[in-house]
Amino acid sequence: MRNKPTLAEYIEELWEKGFKLSDEDVRFIYFGKKYTDAKEDLIIIALKTTLRIQRTFDGSFYISLLELLQEKKVVSEKQAYAVLRKKGIM
Fold first, then answer.
1. pLDDT means over runs of 10, the chain (90 residues)
2. Which of 2, 53, 58, 62 has the fewest CB atoms within 10 Å around its CB?
3. How far apart are CA 78 and CA 45, in angstroms?
4. Is residue 31 part of a domain?
């Protein structure tokens, strides 16, 4: 059974798939992690959702998602998507 990837591993997976985040984007992703004190699972969900919806990295959208998911005390991807659908984001 494969463990969930760390944030660094997820960013590396994106790179390998051809989605290249800039150094500035990566620094901002880690800034958001520190700013919100969110767990890596939540950071990955917010990053994945940002990229799916925006088709590019949008720092303000990413931070807004992180804050919303933290506020709602989301602990799983399924719960996150339910919250985002309820808010009309997805």
1. 82 92 96 92 93 93 94 90 90
2. 2
3. 10
4. yes
